[in-house]
Write a structure and sequence with these properties.
10 helices; alpha/beta; single chain; DUF4276; Rossmann fold; 12% strand; 194 residues; 4-stranded parallel β-sheet; DUF4276 family protein
Length: 194
């Protein structure tokens, strides 16, 4: 593999991955990883076959990152994998964000606290609702509450990615879906070196 294309739903995920996390996780990420954003999940689904069939360099691999929201995780993944097979790319790696990007932030409350200048916020990670952030169906509302309670302005996805992302530490993140995503990227990066 000499190129990785990650298809995401929205700009905030693109910012977090392309500008912040991937360069810290993977050597020369900006030279061989492309993060393609879409205008929400409907646009992403519509574009999957188009993107996978497009002309890419020989050896390009694909990853799709899709929010679970209220869908059943296994069924959603099966639907996305079927789209990949139909497009002739059955090896595409599909990762489901449980439930949404904000769950990943809540998985690292210390990073959220640092972004807000509220170091003590990290101590709330021991609270039951934050122990398994992927179970929170209202992660975005939780982020909005935290930003209203502790920040000078409300939570916005793009500025949230820019503020929280630099403080995120994959090793301490409690979001299982975040960890599965990280393992997938690291495995693909290892393929590149072989």
């Amino acid at each position: 593999m000499n190129h990785l294309v990650i298809l995401v739903e929205e700009e905030s995920m693109q910012i977090l991955l392309r500008d912040i996390l991937l360069p810290r996780l993977v050597e020369d990420a900006d030279q061989w990883i492309t993060v393609v954003r879409h205008r929400g999940k409907t646009d992403l689904r519509k574009q999957i076959p188009v993107r996978l069939r497009s002309r890419w360099p020989e050896g390009t691999r694909f990853m799709i990152l899709h929010d679970q929201d209220q869908a059943e995780c296994r069924a959603l993944k099966a639907e996305l994998l079927a789209l990949c097979r139909e497009a002739g790319r059955p090896e595409t790696l599909v990762r489901i964000v449980c439930h949404e990007l904000e769950s990943w932030y809540l998985g690292d409350l210390e990073a959220v606290g640092r972004a807000l200048g509220q170091e003590s916020l990290g101590q709330r990670a021991a609270q039951e609702k934050f122990r398994e952030p992927d179970r929170l169906a209202n992660a975005k509302q939780e982020m909005e509450r935290l930003f209203l309670d502790h920040g000078p302005q409300g939570y916005k996805p793009r500025s949230g990615a820019r503020a929280i992302g630099p403080h995120m530490d994959p090793a301490r993140n409690r979001s299982h879906s975040f960890q599965v995503f990280i393992r997938g990227v690291v495995a693909l990066a290892a393929e590149r070196r072989v």
